Amino acid sequence: MYSWKTSLHLDAPREKVWDTLIDFGAMKDWKPGTKSSTVETDGSIGQGTRVRLEQGGSPMVLTVEEWGPPRLLRLYLTRGKTNGSSRFCLTNAPNGGTQLDHSYELDPPIYLEPLMLFAGFGIRRELAALKRWVEKK
Q1: CA pair distance 17, 98, nearest whole angstrom
Q2: CB under 8 Å to 36, separation ≥6 — which residues?
Q3: Backbone region of residue 48 per phi and psi (left: phi > 0; alpha: psi in -120 to 50; beta: other values)
Q4: What is the spatial distance between Cα 63 and Cα 110, in angstroms, rounded to a whole number?
Q5: What strands lie across the sheet with 82-92, from one edge to the other?
Q6: Segments forming the whole domain that contains residue 57
Q7: CATH code for position 43
Q8: Rounded Cα–Cα distance for residues 11 and 105 (Å)
């Protein structure tokens, strides 16, 4: 299991950051390399919601495991033989901003382990893209 933790400040209210994170159909607009994002489950967004991301190669499926609006979102992810989780914790920061604490864990098959060095760069790139997207909206 490989894990990464990142904290960053966003110049946007927590509700705006939350709304962006849970707008799964629009993930393709801000998440680098995502060609499409489709909610596969019916009904309202919440625990158990499944989302399919097309990013080239095999699709990634995200399933909402923890749902605590507007502060906690944990997604279980699968892509081929790799699985893991992505956890977002949002708190109000001074001046109307948001503190985002993110943890990411991956359990890849052994033949992909040499590539885990690059996974951390990808995570930071995605969070930077989220920050830019939320702050410009």
Answers
A1: 8
A2: 28, 52, 53, 54
A3: left
A4: 24
A5: 2-10, 98-107, 82-92, 72-79, 60-68, 50-54, 36-39
A6: 2-136
A7: 3.30.530.20
A8: 26
pLDDT band at 1 (very low <50, low <70, confident <90, very high): confident
Lookup: tokens for 63: 């399933």
Q: Which amino acid is at 122?
A: G
Share of the chain above pLDDT 90, in %: 79
CA distances from 67 to 88, 89, 108, 129 (A): 10, 11, 25, 23
Choose among 41, 43, 82, 42: nearest CA to 60: 82
Task: Provide the pLDDT for residue 50.
Answer: 97
Strand residue runs (E) in the chain = 2-10, 36-39, 50-54, 60-68, 72-79, 82-92, 98-107
**Considering its fold, how many domains does the chain have in total?**
1
Structure-token pair, residue 53: 């991301």
pTM above 0.85, yes or no: yes
